[in-house]
Design goal:
It is globular, with a radius of gyration of 11 Å. 77% of the residues lie in helices and 0% in strands. By secondary structure, it is mainly α.
Length: 57
C-alpha cells in the first residue's frame, strides 16, 4: 500500500470514529496522520471541523 492510500484510509477511519463518538481514537488517528505528514490538509481540516463543532474556537 502506498503512503497516499494509507493516508486516505486513515482519514476514512477517523471520520468513522468521529461518527461513532470515539473522540480519543479519532484524535489518535489524526495524530498518526500528522506525524506522517505535518501538512496533511485533510487531517488539519478534520481537526478544524471538530474544534468548531465542539465550540473550542
Amino acid at each position: 500500500m502506498q503512503n497516499h492510500e494509507y493516508e486516505e484510509m486513515l482519514i476514512l477511519k477517523a471520520k468513522s470514529l468521529k461518527h461513532h463518538e470515539k473522540t480519543y481514537k479519532f484524535l489518535e488517528c489524526l495524530e498518526k496522520l500528522l506525524k506522517m505528514n505535518p501538512y496533511n490538509e485533510k487531517a488539519l481540516a478534520e481537526i478544524a471541523i471538530y474544534l468548531k463543532e465542539k465550540r473550542y474556537v
